[in-house]
């Protein structure tokens, strides 16, 4: 596999640190390949080495599975889809599992000796909360792995206390092994201009203080001291400073429909008929059927009266969008949607954001645009037909395609809103695709510059 300079440097850093370290690279910088190359190098001196990856569910196949198949000859096992089977000697090179799986299964059942085990926590900010159940599980098993790597673009999106669990997973010697002792060393309590330092508190005392408006804070001097502790164990990379990185990076995130949603999808696909909230949703011809399936993957469908019927349970695409929003930190974001229901549902969840679609009056459009361009609104939720042509959003470099339609021209125009003269950063495009559905077919056809007729052919094949 061919690596960019920042990936080569990160691999060299990890090898030098004996396979223990943090890769804090921006979104879209190929952290997966960095980990795979590190595994390859470590395996050259230990042919029995196995790698265990813990990552968000959407990345198991969308990032790890695709890169393993594309760039290596390794055999991998998606434990999320495989029934647990205890084996003395695992037949796979790589085991991949999502964080939530750890709450109901024992990863150690698949692990050999400590000397032949390597673990990677992708999007390690998932364990930023030291009191979370997943964090406790991972901190209880880290000693089973000789090589330990954590990876994140935003390891501490809120406050530096979020470094503790991630760095403790790597090495108990980086910070004090007790969270409260770590917090008392680097942080103080503040409430407006009031400051309280150097006071040890029990959990009940802290809870009482926080309930009255006190919160943890850190001085510039203590922050520098904390960063000095982190530095030997971390490799940082900013995508906008990596000169050899492509100007545009496409990323896929596979999400999985909930049982009700999956059942409705399969009904529609097989019989052209589904029932939601007691109403029949009928599709008579192929394109209409495909449109209904597209709606269902987003968590709703229109009935014959044009009323949107929401499917029970939170849409997995919405859950993944919320994960990405946390993952990118405070950066601005454009979210492209194809249906009014999606835009209005996201607007309710996200709150303060700019919106551009058919229902926005012409005299309000410029106001929505300016709020986003000036940074007053962090998010823009839009339909490509309303914002995909002519507009320039070089204030933003990350886009999410919540859903896709058949038009390659609309798709490429939407991408071009951020990749334009004046853009100084690398552009990242994230596609939310329900696994094994019409979403993947549309994505593949669009990337071959196909049209709706080709989508129908692929769907019916």
Radius of gyration: 24 Å
- Output the number of helix runs: 17
Number of domains: 2
Which class of secondary structure composition applies to the elements?
A: alpha/beta
Shape: globular
Percentage beta strand: 15-25%
CA-to-CA gap between the ends? 33 Å
Let me know the CATH homologous superfamily of the largest domain.
Tandem AAA-ATPase domain
- Kindly report the average pLDDT value: 88
State the share of residues found in helices, binned by percent. 25-40%
Please count the beta strands (DSSP E, at least 2 residues each). 20
Major sheet: 7 strands, parallel
CATH architecture of the largest domain: 3-Layer(aba) Sandwich
Residue ranges: pLDDT <50 for 5 or more in a row?
84-88
Question: Any idea of the CATH topology of the largest domain?
Answer: Rossmann fold
Can you lay out the helices and strands and say which pair or pack?
Blueprint: H1 5-16, E1 20-25, H2 31-43, E2 50-55, H3 59-71, E3 76-78, E4 94-98, E5 117-122, H4 133-141, E6 147-151, H5 163-170, H6 179-186, E7 188-191, E8 194-196, H7 203-210, E9 215-217, H8 220-230, E10 234-237, E11 248-255, H9 259-271, E12 273-276, E13 279-282, H10 286-298, E14 300-302, E15 308-310, H11 316-327, E16 333-336, H12 340-350, E17 354-356, H13 362-373, E18 379-382, H14 384-387, E19 398-401, H15 408-415, E20 427-434, H16 438-446, H17 452-460
Helix pairs in contact: 1-2, 9-10, 16-17
